[in-house]
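Minimal example, chain plus iron/sulfur cluster.
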Amino acid sequence: MCYLCTEFIMQKNRIVLSEEIVMQGLNMPLVEEFYTLQGEGYHTGKPAYFIRIGGCDIGCHWCDTKISWDPEMHSLVPIERLVANALKTPARAVVVTGGEPTNYNLGPLTSMLKEHGIKTFLETAGTSPITGTWDWICLSPKPQQPPLEQYYDLADELKVIVFEDKDFHWAEEQSEYVQNSCKLYLQSEWSRYQGNVEVMVEYIKRNPKWNMSLQAHKFMHIP
Ligand code: SF4
């Protein structure tokens, strides 16, 4: 068999395998997992086990987890092992983040976590259809790839990243779509924190439906 034919079959197998992995949700490309305190949004300060899954094509230029973009850079880990690792800690909640975790079928992972009495929290930009059973959904919408409509009903928390002034407009627009019960947070992009904080404080004082989300873990120098 010629070299080109072999390459084609390998490529074809890889794509088929990827589709299976996405649909089955039994293995995840794991970027990192760690037990820490949630640093952002409504659950700030509460201990949680974080599972960061690889793969995101949204491409925020300020993304602080660019290492998560290419799923093929990360080893596939069976969800049994992810759950077992979380259970080695006293964590009562697991935050599934990315990357963009909704690119995968999260049903099996959340079922397994719930069987062990673990609460399931999702951090998502809402760009792929929802799977899994969630106790808390934090929707962090991105203008270059807005969320699917279903997320506006599902979101417990809306967290909009403020990089520049026009992001306030994006935040207001997004807040029109979520349920009244949804908690509203503005969070400065980390590298802009010093420059943004004063403007954001004044904005929130004028628009008290919003809350400030600080990346408290970065101030505490924890993961
Ligand atoms: Fe990074 Fe999240 Fe933006 Fe994806 S959606 S590029 S992971 S900040």
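The helical segments are 3-24, 79-87, 107-115, 150-154, 166-175, 193-206, 216-220. The domain at 10-220 is CATH 3.20.20.70 (TIM Barrel).
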